[in-house]
């Protein structure tokens, strides 16, 4: 476990930690599900599923510290394994994992102010839950972060009509196109819903998405931007200087 001194403190750091832990849990309950299932032997002691900041996962007994350094996952997930339908059991573990991931994120965010807590939850809420990934097959990858380069370049694709626009998720082998999920994304400027026929661009700082027309960015201009900062984040940086 991470020490208190090394715990993430900013909204961006906490969200990065959340995404990594979530990725590990999703990996365990989907791509590595057979290995995970075998490790949850009902004959063993109380077991928990942990997701780690490096994106890995493991099944182990809970921490012995009282109180624990971090909130603990659901205890004894292995005991119900053989008494339930496999799919239902995985869904149950997924629900408890979602609760644990939120509790860890807001444990780290205890000192955040009201607006930052709201922004943190909004960023988390933009991702499919572990439960959705397990039960609905929404195995989409997370939105690109500051570390993965410019969203405006890495996630650009051509639509059916040939116009260049920004996709809300990068394409890869785990990608599933989901217009219903995309429709929940709102423009950070006008509040309008996502439309696949319109050009969108994501801010590399706050990770919000915008209509290109709302922030006066064209597809051609986006191609030359290495790191896009929305008007709000640009203004904040100007004030700090």
Considering DSSP H and I runs of 4 or more, what fraction of the residues is helical?
A: 25-40%
Residues in β-strands, percent:
5-15%
What's the mean pLDDT score?
A: 78
Question: What is the 3D form?
Answer: elongated
* Element string (H = helix, E = strand): HHEEHHHHEEHEEHH
Number of domains in the coordinates? 2
Number of helices: 9
Termini separation: 36 Å
Strand count, sense and barrel status of the largest sheet are: 2 strands, antiparallel
With strands numbered from the N-terminus, the spatial order across the biggest sheet is 1-2
Class from helix and strand fractions: mainly alpha
User: Which regions contain 5 or more consecutive residues with pLDDT less than 50?
Assistant: 1-5, 139-178
Can you count the beta strands? Answer: 6
Query: Taking Cα atoms only, what radius of gyration do you get, to the nearest Å?
Result: 20 Å
